[in-house]
Design goal:
Blueprint: E1 12-14, E2 17-19, E3 26-30, E4 37-42, H1 46-63, H2 68-84, H3 86-97, H4 101-118, E5 129-134, E6 137-145, E7 148-152, H5 160-171, E8 175-179, H6 186-198, E9 205-207, H7 212-220, E10 224-230, H8 233-245, E11 249-253, E12 258-262, H9 268-280, E13 290-296, H10 303-311, H11 331-346, E14 350-353, E15 372-375, H12 382-385, E16 392-398, H13 401-410, E17 413-414, E18 416-420, H14 424-433, E19 438-441, E20 457-458, E21 461-462, H15 469-475, E22 477-485
Parallel strand pairs: 7-8, 7-10, 8-9, 10-11, 12-13, 12-18, 13-16, 15-16, 18-19
Antiparallel strand pairs: 1-2, 3-4, 5-6, 6-22, 11-21, 14-15, 17-20
Keywords: NAD, Oxidoreductase
Organism: Azotobacter beijerinckii
Domain Aldehyde dehydrogenase: 18-482
């Protein structure tokens, strides 16, 4: 057996069984710190994807009628299994994605919060009742599952984002086909194994792998009723257009350019620490990363301390103790980030801290970029217009809070923003005037807990309803309105009038 033959292959999950793909197209899963090939992932054939959808369609017939309490118990068990395997899941995630073990555990734990929310589906999937809307007439609503739903997830949160999707969809009575990122699908497959162990029946959860062709097939498949997507603006726009034209419900969470505004009265040490963590944590590979800091008035004097804070962060492989940020996901990502840094220099921004080629002696093949800080950034520059998706912070200046708000609102994206201040009046003014979906006050990454929904806006989102929270129950269910009238046995009258008149 050759060394190549010894590399394990990632399987598909179809109808409750993990099966080897018959595909002739495969991709290596590479440890981004070492370039070691961890496994090979298949690009599922059209027949395999169709089999997964057919399995989900058949399973829906019985799963939709499963009592809501029984569905809830599955997710009570599932959250327990995830907790028991947290360290294992984090280790898999770090090996294939690169983020530090602490970040990897956070990735899993944020997804776990949604699983716990799914376990409370009995209190979430509730209709409404109006008694006696007319004489002897009641009207009520039912929230019924849609059928087969699909999810397309990105590389940067390979545990959290799948857990945003299939638990809530399945808890609502749907069945699901998941396509995780082909760059790091192994932790999603382990989560799928645990889901089956928790009691999810065959066919209710299926997993396929692939690239653009698989995405298009999911968008166009006539048996899929809804698609959830998290990823880049380019692909998300394509998914939304293609799936919508095919008559599906679609929600797409996409790119971002998140700003943090710093007022001079902010708590200095806390603000600087929060900015560094939000800009450079997870190597900047998150759609809610703070990639722009706007220093207002005298806060511009904080720039040297911000640069010093960034320079103090430790770049290393995610498995190494004390590392603050690990490598980027791939060589292509490394080249793109470095190219954008060079664009910033060429376009006239002041490079205060250059993170290219950091010394990581034990991992010379790693895709490392250290914290990078630019000042004197203007809205016309490439480093401001594009989502860099790396550990690069653009620092801008504004004379007033209103000037800073205008700068944020002029940006096409609306995923997240934050204000650092000790002024309640300034905070209230900010939250009222800012045109961004998720707002933090002294919170740099304002991703809400699952009691609420993820509410990115403008160019960062397509579709009316966000993932998890109350909105996702609406997304994964169809509202059916029933108007009913019953007669007593002794009632005598003429022909039944089937038109109800409300007076």
């Amino acid at each position: 057996m050759s060394e190549r033959d010894a590399i394990p292959s990632v399987r598909l999950l179809i109808d409750g069984r993990f099966v080897e793909s018959a595909s002739e197209q495969w991709r290596d899963i590479v440890n981004p710190a070492t370039q070691q090939v961890l496994a090979r992932v298949p690009f599922a054939t059209g027949a395999e994807l169709n089999a997964a959808v057919a399995s989900a369609r058949e399973a829906f017939k019985s799963w939709r009628k499963t009592p809501i309490t029984a569905r809830a118990r599955v997710f009570l068990k599932y959250q327990q299994l995830i907790r028991e395997h947290l360290k294992e899941l984090a280790a898999i995630l770090t090996a294939e994605q690169g983020k530090t073990l602490a970040d990897a555990e956070g990735d899993v734990l944020r997804g776990l919060e949604v699983v716990e929310h799914a376990a409370g589906i009995g209190n979430l999937q509730l209709g409404e009742l109006a008694n006696n809307v007319a004489a002897g007439v009641d009207t009520y609503t039912l929230l019924q599952p849609l059928g087969v739903c699909a999810g397309i997830t990105p590389f940067n949160f390979p545990a959290m984002i799948p857990l945003w999707m299939f638990p809530m969809a399945i808890a609502c009575g749907n069945t699901f086909v998941l396509k995780p990122s082909e760059l790091d699908p192994m932790v999603a497959m382990r989560l799928a194994e645990l889901a089956l162990e928790a009691g999810i029946p065959p066919g209710v959860l299926n997993v396929v792998h692939g690239g653009a062709e698989a995405v298009d097939r999911l968008c166009e498949h006539p048996d899929i009723k809804a698609i959830s997507f998290v990823g880049s603006t380019r692909i998300g726009s394509h998914v939304y257009r293609r799936a919508s034209q095919a008559g599906k419900r679609v929600q797409c969470m996409m790119g971002a350019k998140n700003h943090a505004i710093v007022l001079p009265d902010a708590h200095r040490e806390q603000t600087l620490a929060n900015l560094a963590g939000a800009a450079f944590g997870a190597a900047g590979q998150r759609c809610m990363a703070v990639s722009v800091a706007i220093l207002v008035g005298e806060a511009r004097q904080w720039l040297p301390e911000l640069v010093a804070k960034a320079a103090s962060l430790k770049v290393n492989a995610g498995v190494e103790p004390g590392s603050d940020l690990g490598p980027l996901i791939s060589r292509a990502a490394l080249e793109r980030v470095c190219s954008l840094i060079e664009c910033g220099v060429q376009e006239g921004a002041q490079l205060e801290l250059d993170g290219r080629h950091p010394p990581v002696s034990d991992y010379p093949q790693g895709n490392f970029v250290g914290p990078t800080v630019f000042s004197e950034v203007t809205p016309e520059m490439s480093i401001y217009r594009e989502e860099i998706f790396g550990p690069v912070l653009c620092v801008m200046q504004a004379a007033t809070l209103d000037e800073a708000i205008a700068l944020v609102n002029a940006n096409p994206h609306g995923n997240g923003t934050a204000l650092f201040t000790r002024s309640g009046a300034a905070a209230r003014h900010f939250q009222e005037e800012i045109d961004v979906g998720q707002v933090g006050i002294n919170v740099p990454i304002p991703v809400p807990v699952p009691l609420f929904s993820f509410t990115g806006s403008r160019a960062s989102k397509l579709g009316d309803l966000g993932p998890y929270g109350k909105q996702i129950v609406q997304f994964y269910t169809q509202t059916k309105t029933v108007t009913q009238r019953w007669f007593d046995e002794g009632d005598v009258g003429g022909p039944v009038n089937t038109t109800i008149t409300l007076k």
